[in-house]
Design brief:
The complex is a heterodimer of chains A (353) and B (144). Chain A is α/β, with parallel strands linked by helices and 353 residues long. Chain A is built from 16 helices and 5 strands. Chain A folds into 2 domains: 121 residues, 3-Layer(aba) Sandwich (Rossmann fold), CATH 3.40.50; 228 residues, Hypothetical protein af1432 (Orthogonal Bundle), CATH 1.10.3210.10. Helices cover 74% and strands 0% of the residues of chain B. Chain B is elongated and about 45 Å long. The chains are: A alpha/beta (353), B mainly alpha (144).
């Protein structure tokens, strides 16, 4: 496996490179955190061993920067440092590091910790399985295309932005960002329980059909809740259940299924709500054209404090360039400058989808 | 051969000894850090020797200039390098200088500098013998 070593001290760098090479790893050494971040962005490295004190970007700064990146897979980070007070260990781990090794390091211990890292990285296949499960549920709906890929990317962008907002700093960390990316594709998993005559109806749903369609939120939450009862405390199941249950709730209490309002709605559900609606608005359906980003943005902004959490709308506006990048990356059909429907019509149609 | 080098060899020849005259580097520990690879240990000592000289110079110059931050950073680097080659006394002294500098107690740094300088000199004097020992060409008995 490739390992990136970030260490500015030449003696330490030589020792780390020699130790890891002897253990069979392919090692690349860089001398500061900023250079390390550039190398991580190439996607070549899923294992990083970093010093704390380095020029340009420290080890904890590097950890935070990596966690904020939109990377194809999880990057496991070990901080190797002589800063070994309890307070510093907490600070290092809170920055997003996965493990902490004190200098001078014992080579056998470091190698074993790297083997542990390899085992943990292999668990990412679990993440792939979760996504496959969501795709399977989605596969019954022929129109959604790359909907899940886009929604989870939008969610991550929103969470990354909110992580820098004082009000959310204590609630959104690297793990939250990773979990929402992992679990947001499960938002519509309850659609597996919706009859074909409703789910595959190409036109607008009548009131009765719409009531049936709305049950997918509770169905998904019940399914994931049952798994959670078997495996209590599993965070991705908790977040997945919360998202499935609440991604159609509205900030003003007019949503479904529980008519929750404001902060009664879990933060993850509020984030997915906006991401899901933005994607529905900017995607073509049998019954509507894809709206341009500008039209979708104006609709969402008008719903700030009504349908959506105002803080999340603000994060959306700040991050809109990244939304457009994601939309372009997973583009299926070019948006049209179709006549804009009324806001209520568009949102109701999108949400029913 | 300098007086310091003679002293280092003499100390090494004395086998088990008080901490004050123990060799500045514990070669058995260094070898263990390098998983028994002599070539790596030798390369580390070469890099260590170069860093010792430059770091001491920077610490002295920046302490004289009142630059506590740079003294702290360089002492931290020296501490790390000393730890890597199992030079525990030097590591401790560099750590003291780092701590004093980070608290901006440059007067205390000046006081510790003479001990640090002496330990650096002791390491430099011992390095040629250490390299010989690692390569199996020395008659110096293994320190314990």
């Amino acid at each position: 496996m490739n390992i990136l070593v970030a260490e500015d001290n030449e003696v330490q760098a030589v020792l780390l490179e020699a130790t890891l090479t002897q253990a069979g790893f392919q090692v690349t050494c860089v001398r500061d955190g900023a250079e390390a971040l550039e190398r991580v962005r190439t996607g070549e490295f899923r294992l990083v061993v970093t010093d704390w004190e380095m020029p340009r970007m420290t080890g904890p700064e590097l950890c935070r920067a990596i966690r904020a990146e939109d990377l194809p897979g999880y990057v496991y980070i070990i901080l190797v440092t002589s800063r070994d007070t309890a307070q510093e260990r907490v600070q290092g781990l809170a920055s997003g590091a996965d493990d902490f090794v004190a200098k001078p390091f014992n080579p056998a211990e470091l190698i074993e910790r790297l083997h542990t890292a390899e085992r943990i990285l292999s668990l990412e296949t679990r993440d792939v399985a979760i996504f496959a499960m969501a795709k399977l549920a989605e596969s019954r709906d022929p129109e959604t295309g790359a909907h899940l890929e886009r929604v989870r990317s939008y969610c991550r962008v929103l969470a990354q932005d909110l992580a820098g907002v004082e009000k959310f700093k204590d609630r959104i960390d690297g793990e939250f960002i990773r979990l929402i990316y992992l679990t947001s594709p499960l938002h519509d998993i309850g659609k597996v329980g919706i009859p074909d005559c409703v789910l595959l109806n190409p036109g607008r749903l009548n009131d009765r059909e719409f009531e049936i369609m709305k049950t997918h939120a509770a169905l998904g939450a019940e399914t994931l809740g049952a798994a959670l009862r078997t495996f209590p405390g599993v965070k991705f199941l908790e977040m997945g259940r919360d998202i499935a249950a609440t991604h159609h709730e509205r900030w003003n209490g007019d949503g479904y299924p529980a008519k929750l309002s404001g902060e009664q709605i879990p933060l993850c559900g509020r984030i997915v709500a906006l991401a899901d609606v933005y994607d529905a608005l900017t995607s073509k359906r049998v019954y509507k054209a894809a709206f341009s980003h500008d039209i979708a943005r104006s609709m969402i902004v008008k719903e700030s404090g009504e349908h959506f959490d105002p803080d999340i709308v603000a994060a959306f506006v700040r991050s809109q360039a990244r939304f457009q990048e994601i939309r372009d990356r997973f583009a299926e059909l070019a948006p049209t400058q179709a006549n804009s429907p009324t806001l209520t019509e568009a949102l109701n149609t999108a949400i029913a989808a | 051969m300098s007086i310091a080098e003679n002293q280092a060899l003499l100390n090494a020849d004395q086998g088990p000894s008080p901490a004050s005259v123990a060799p500045p580097l514990v070669l058995a520990e260094l070898s263990e850090r390098c998983m028994g690879n002599t070539a790596i240990a030798t390369l580390l000592l070469v890099k260590f020797e170069a860093q010792l000289r430059s770091d001491l110079l920077v610490i002295e110059q920046r302490a004289a200039a009142g630059d506590a931050a740079e003294v702290g950073r360089t002492a931290h680097a020296l501490k790390g390098a000393a730890g890597a080659v199992a030079a525990s006394a030097l590591r401790t002294l560099a750590g003291e200088v780092e701590s004093q500098a980070r608290q901006e107690h440059l007067d205390a740094v000046t006081g510790t500098l003479s001990a640090l300088r002496a330990e650096v000199e002791r390491c430099l004097a011992y390095l040629p013998a250490a390299r010989e020992k690692l390569n199996g060409t020395s008659t110096i008995p293994q320190s314990t």
